[in-house]
What does this fold into?
Amino acid sequence: RRNTSNVPAQSLVLMNDPLVHEMAARWAGSILADDTLATDADRGVRLWRQAFAVAPTDDELASMLAFVADADDPTAAWTDVAHAIYNAKAFIHLD
It folds into this structure.
């Protein structure tokens, strides 16, 4: 049986690896291209549900929406949100 561990290098890979950046861009692109998602709130809920299998709290959704609203480039903002989700502890570790 293998010991479970995580080390700083694992977090650095998720933050800096070009593949992770590409995956975040593709995930954001798929959310933005989905015609069934009419608002940024719909997009935020979908992204969160896909990542964590639960709806975001009001505060989590508000944080995502505020970040996207403040951005000059919505596509880049959603990519950053997706990238942040990849780095979230709840995304990395199963409870």
Notes: The helical segments are 8-16, 18-33, 40-52, 58-70, 74-86, 89-92. The CA atoms of residues 69 and 77 lie 9 Å apart. Residues 18-33 form the longest helix (16 residues).
